[in-house]
Amino acid sequence: MDRQGRAKPGKSRPDVRKPPAAGGIVRTKPDSEREDWAMTGDRDKITSNQLMAIMISLLIGIGILSLPRTVTEEAGPDGWLLVLAGGIIVIIISVIISKLGIMFSGQTVVEYSKAVVTKPLGILFSLGLFVYFVFFTAFEARVFSEITKQFLLDRTPTEAIVVTILISSTYLVRQDLATIGRMGEMLVPVFIIIPFLFLIPAIPEMDLTNLLPFMGTSPVRLLAGMGTIVTSYLGFETLLLFQPLMSRPQDAGKAMAVAMTAVMLVYILMVIATVSIFGVFEVQRLIWPTFSVFRAIKIPGAFMENVHGVIMAIWVVTVYMTLSIFFFAGVTTMGRLLALKEHSFMVLPLAFIIYFLAMMPDNIAVLYEYLDMFSIYLGVPFGFVLPLVIYITARVRGMGKERGKKDGKHPKKSN
Amino acid sequence: MGNTLRKAISIFMAAALMMCVTGCWDRVEINNRYFVLAIAIDKFEYSDIQQQREEQEEPNGQQQEQDGVQDPLDSPRNRMVVSVVFPNVGLLKSEGAIVSEEMKFPLSTVGPNVFEAMRQLNTRVNGNMFFGHVKAVLLGEGLLSDKKLFMEVLDELERDHEIGRNIDLLVVKGKAKDALFIKPLVEPIVGTYLEQIFLQRRTGRFHGRKLGEIIVSIHETGGGLVPRLTVGENEFKVAGSCVIKDHKQRGWLGELETRAAQWIDNMAGEGVVSVDMQGVSVPFELTGLKRNMEVTRDEGGNIYLDISLAAEGDIAGYIFQMNREVMDEKFISEAEGAVSREMAAQCLGVMDKLQNEFGVDIWGIGNHIRKYYPEIWKDVKDNWEQVFPELRVGISVNVNVRRIGIIK
Questions:
Q1: In the beta sheet, which residues pair with residue B303?
Q2: Distance between CA A95 and CA A7 in Å, rounded?
Q3: Strand locations in A61-220, DSSP E?
Q4: A227 at the B interface (CB within 8 A)?
Q5: Angle between the A347-358 and A308-337 helix axes, to the nearest 10 degrees?
Q6: Segment-wise mean pLDDT, segments of 10 residues, chain B, 408 residues
Q7: Which chain A residues are Cβ-neighbours of B370 within 8 angstroms?
C-alpha cells in the first residue's frame, strides 16, 4: 500500500500502454519531452492542466461571496479595479514562486527554505506555513457551515455541518495530489460555467452606469484597499509545495498565470454583475452579495423559481475543494517537515484540531473579524511577503543556480 | 482472541455508522409545506378592533362592558397585523383524498414584528409555512405612515433569506389585510394575480419596481415610489403610486402622474396618450420611449437639468369620415406636436409636484449627477435635498408617429 508498491506497476505501464498514455497529454509538446511523463510513469504527479484546475478550485471559495462587498466598501464603483490590481500582483508573485521551484527543482519550500534562510528560520517558516494552512482550513469549514445553515439547513447544528464537511474532505486528503487534480479537472468547468449561465437572464436588470464614475476613487485609497482582497486571492502560495509534485515543474509559471487570470476574470465579472444589479450602496449592506444576486434572478418561463439552490449546490463543491486542498497543503507541509514517507495518518487527528478551531468564533460578526485579522497577519506574510523574501535571499546568495542546472538536466539524462 | 476483538470493533463501527445515516434534519415533506404566496402587513390599531366589535355586537344587544379590565389585545406587544395566504395545493391532485374545498387559506395574526407573527401562525397551521415562493407583499397605508414600523418591516423582508428580492411590494389604500382576503374575479390567489398584473404591463399607470429596487432606492435616497393597490368589492387595481420621503409615506401620485414619472425614469415605454385635435380625442399608443438627461451648471451655481424624451408609437383612432384623413404628413406632424406638448406638460406637472410639493428625488437624479458629473456632485452632495427643488428643469419631447392602423 505504500508509494513504492504503487510505483512498480506504474513503471511497467509505459511499455504496455504507451500509445494511449501519450495520447492523453497535450499534443503541442515535442515527442522527446513528452517521454518524461510516460517514463517516470508516476501517477502521483500532476499535469499542468491539473495544476490549473487545482489552483482555480482552490482560490474560488469563501472569498468570492463577500468580495463584491469588501471591494465596494473600499473603492466604491471602482472596486473591480482593486480586483484587477490584486490579480496582477498575484500573477507576478506566483510566477516568482514558480521560479523558486525551478531553482530548487524536486524540493518543496520546506526543504529549500532551510538552505536559503538558515535551518532554524526555515523550520520556523514551515511551521508557520503549517499553522496558516490549518487556520485557513478551519475558516473555510466555519464560513461554509454558517452559510449552509443560513440558506439551506436551518435546523442542522453548526457542529454537524462542520464535522460532515471535514470528514468528507479527509477522504480526499488521504489521497495524493493527482487525485485532487483529477477531481478539479472535472469540477472546474462546472463551477465556472453554470453560475455565469444563470447570470444571463439578469443582464436586462444590470445597470452598468452603477460603475460610474470611473476612477473617482483616489489612487491612495485604492492602494489602502488592497488589503481587503487578500482573502479572495490566498491559496496560490500552495505552489511552494505542489510544484515538485508536477510532472513538468518548469511549466508551473505558465499554468499559474493562466489559472490566476481565470480567477481574476471570474472575480471581476462577479463584482461587475453585483454592483450593476444592486448599486454601490446596496452591495455594501449585503453580507454575501454574490448569493443575493442569484436571489434576485428570475429565470424566464418560471420553470425554476429559486436559482440560488443550484448555485448553493455548486458552491458547496467549490468550498469542498478549497478546504481539501488547504488541508492537503497543511498535511504535506507537516509531512515534509518531519520527512515522513506517508502522511495520511495525520489527516484524522488534524481534522479534530481543525474542528475545534472552526468552532471558536462565537458568531458571524466575530468570525469575519477573525478572518480579516487572519488574512492580514498570516495571509499577507505567508502568501506575499515571505516567498518574495526567500526568492530575493536565494538570488542574493547566488543559490540554486548550479543546482538548478543540474536538476534541470536530470530528467533528460534519465531518458 | 484478536479475531473477536476485531469483530467487536467492526460491530461497533457499524453501529456508529447508524448515527451518521439518520437522514436530513431539515427535511420537510412537500405535502407538509404550505407555499405562502402573499403577505399583508398592517399597523395594529386598537381602535379598529373596538370599532369592529361595536359593529358586530350592537345588533345583538349583548354588549359586554368590561371597564377596568384591560383587553389582552390592547398591549404594546401588538404592533402589526400580519396576514398570509396560501393556496390549497391539495385541490390540484385530489383524487379521492379528503381535502378542503377552499381555494386558499387566509390567516391573520397580531404580533410585535413580522417574524414573530409568522411563527405564531405556525401554532394554527398543521404544516410548515414556506416563504420561498412569496410573490407579493402588501403594506397597509397606516404602516407606511409610521417611519419606524415601515423601516422595521423593510429590514425584515430584506434580511429573510427565503423571501426573494424580485417580488412585488405594494401599498394598499386602507388595510392590506382586506386586499389579501378578497376573492378576485379572475384568479383566486392574490399573489399570482398580482404577479401577472405586473408582468403584462401595458399601461404604465403603476410603478413597476420590485422589492429589491425599492429597497435600493429608499436606501440610497430615503425616498422612492411604491405602487399603489386599491381594493374593490371582489377585485382590486394596481394604479398610481405612493411617494416615500424620509423613510415614510409622504403623498400619492395619480395614475397619469405615475406614468409621467416613469417616462422621466426611462421605465414605461407603453401606454396611451390621448390628445385633443380640433375637438376629437386622438389616442396615441406609445410603443417605445428613450430618455436622455443632461446636467449643466452656469457661473451663478444654478444647475440645469435637461430631459429629452424620444417617443414613438401609433395613432390608434380618429373620427369616421367627418374630418381629414389621417394618412397625411401634415396631419401626422400636427398630431406629433400635440402629443409631445401633452407629454411634456404631464412630465413638467409631476416634476413640479415632486420638486415643490414633496421635495423628493424619486428618480435618483442625484445618483445620475454622481455618476456622470462627479465635479458637480462634489458641491451638492451634502445638501442635495435643498438643491433638488432648485433644479431648473427643461423637458423636451420628440414624438414620432410610425403607424396609423389599417385604414387611411
A1: B297
A2: 31
A3: none
A4: no
A5: 120
A6: 84 79 72 83 79 63 51 74 80 60 77 85 82 86 87 88 84 85 77 78 75 85 86 81 86 86 79 84 87 86 88 84 75 88 90 87 85 85 84 89 82
A7: 213
Number of helices (H) and strands (E) in chain B: give both, helices first.
Answer: 14, 14
d(CA A164, CA A355): 10
Distances (CA, A) of A361 to A131, A142, A357, A370, B346: 17, 9, 8, 8, 58
Q: Which own/partner pairs from B20-24 qualify as long-range (CB within 8 Å, at least 24 positions apart)?
A: B24/A153, B24/A156
pLDDT tens-digit map of A63-99: 888 899 989 888 888 888 889 988 999 999 989 988 8
Angular region, B302: left φ>0, alpha ψ -120 to 50, beta rest: beta
Look at residue A1 and tell me whether its pLDDT is greater than 50: no
- Domains in chain A, start-ordered, CATH in brackets? 44-387 (1.20.1740.10)
In this structure, which long-range contacts are made by residues A393-396, counting pairs with CB atoms below 8 Å and at least 24 apart in sequence? A393/A116, A393/A117, A394/A100, A394/A103, A394/A104, A394/A112, A394/A116
Residue A372 grid coordinates? 480579516
| pLDDT band at residue A302 using 50, 70 and 90 as cut-offs | low
Global pTM reads 0.80
CB of B364 closer than 8 Å to CB of B221: yes
Of A273, A274, A216, A207, nearest to A74 by C-alpha is A216
What is the b/e burial string over A172-195, where b = at least 16 CB atoms within 10 angstroms of the residue's CB? bbbebbbbbbbbbbebbeebbeeb
Question: Residue B161 is nearest to which of A151, A209, A305, comparing CB atoms?
Answer: A151
List Cβ neighbours of A4 (8 Å cut-off, separation of 6 or more): none
Q: How far is A282 from chain B (nearest CA, A)?
A: 6
Tell whether A296 is within 8 A of chain B (Cβ). Answer: yes
Backbone angles phi, psi at B318, to 5 degrees: -140, -130
Nearest Cα neighbor of B190 from B110, B115, B106 is B106
Asked, as a colleague might, if the bond just before A213 is cis with ω within 30 of 0, I would say yes
ipTM of the complex: 0.76
